[in-house]
Amino acid sequence: MRRFFGFFKRNKNKTSTVAGDRLQVIVAHERKASSQPSWMPKMQKEILAVVAKYISIDRKDLKVEMSNEDNMSVLEISVDCPLDEK
Amino acid sequence: MSSKSKRGRVIVVTSGKGGVGKTTTSASLATGLALKGKKTIAIDFDIGLRNLDLIFGCDNRVMYDIIQVMNNEVKLHQACISLNIKDTTGASTDKNLFCLPASQTSDKTHLNVDKIGALIEKLRDKYDYIICDSPAGCEDGALMAMHFADEAVVVVNPEISSIRDSDRIIGHLDTHTVMGKQGLKMPQNLVITRYNAVPESDMISIDQITDILRIDVIGVIPESKDIIASSNVGIPAIANQKNVVGQAYMDVVERILGNDLPLRFLNANRKGFFRKLFGAK
């Protein structure tokens, strides 16, 4: 009986659904990356180097993004700082 | 379309990933358009690794190639190979189908954007449809194949890496083409190949693919051993109109020509007991 239900469970957790979900994430990420200016990775690296001189942060704590809103471009830089650094 | 109604339409067949069926699709679409009376040329952009000539069965007639034409070493008409392909209904491509092969040597001086642009312009005056068979990848050859296109056919397999690569190529269609640089949206359609609709295959569905890629499906080509057979003998798959693959490709041709047909062959065609009994197809 367990096997019987296991069969249905397996059917619900189809690998194609997993593939679809993975693709949604990958594609969204890559679309964002390819819409960024070509100098972005270099600038990101340099900002990280400067901030890291004063605050101990990781690569993942820094977010640099360029977006277009109406007729202007917005450069957004955000740093997640650890609380004890204040 | 209206401003250049008497000019040939350039369609790029692309995919990013290799082995998904670009060349098979290019050959069949070009043949189908010619069978419908449209003067059509298929160009192989896979410099150094040409294969379109094999699928058309004209590999023994290749004398000159696109690089020689581009460099004005030979005349255009000398390099274009005329193909007479008959389908199973008795229709023939008559004097409507041509193939322009790629070169088999790849030196550094290969595709030049201005020279290819001039060549495409020449072809627009002579043909109704110019099918550009793109190489895999997203480098020179692939970018050149799409550069002057008016329309794109993106070939994708219902498979995770093929879908991801297609998305990258779709991005290039919007940025690395004449149309894209003019701020125009190039019409883009999907042809899903190697579609295997048995429920136990756990294949990524058509809905999932269109959800992710956000472009319309212009054709679904079922997985079939007949594709290999047609490549083996050098006759494009569309010539066999007794087979679902040939019919599915002909549906794509009809849709390219503007006829709005519903998608077919989405379910596995397994003969049931009664169908077997009564011999229905």
Provide the descriptors you would attach to this structure in a database record.
heterodimer, A: 86 residues, alpha+beta, two-stranded antiparallel ribbon, 3 helices, 2 strands, extended, B: 281 residues, alpha/beta, 8-stranded mixed β-sheet, 12 helices, 8 strands, 38% helix
Give the gist of this structure.
The complex is a heterodimer of chains A (86) and B (281). With 86 residues, chain A is α+β, with helices and mostly antiparallel strands. Chain A has helices at 2-12, 15-34, 40-54; strands spanning 62-69, 72-79.
Give a written overview of the molecule:
- The complex is a heterodimer of chains A (86) and B (281).
- Chain A folds into 2 domains: 1-35; 36-86, no CATH class.
- Chain A is built from 3 helices and 2 strands; from the N terminus they run H-H-H-E-E.
- Chain A has helices at residues 2-12, 15-34, 40-54; strands spanning 62-69, 72-79.
- A two-stranded antiparallel sheet of chain A has the order 1-2.
- The longest helix of chain A has 20 residues, at 15-34.
- The mean pLDDT of chain A is 81.
- Chain B is 38% helix and 16% strand.
- Chain B starts with 8 loop residues before the first strand and ends with a helix.
- The model of chain B is unreliable at 1-5 (pLDDT under 50).
- An 8-stranded mixed β-sheet of chain B has the order 3-4-2-5-1-6-7-8, sandwiched between helices.
- Chain B is of the alpha/beta class and 281 residues long.
- Chain B is built from 12 helices and 8 strands.
- In chain B, helix 9 (206-213) links the parallel strand 7 and strand 8 (216-222).
- Classes of the chains: A alpha+beta (86), B alpha/beta (281).
- The interface between A and B is medium-sized, with 13 and 14 residues.
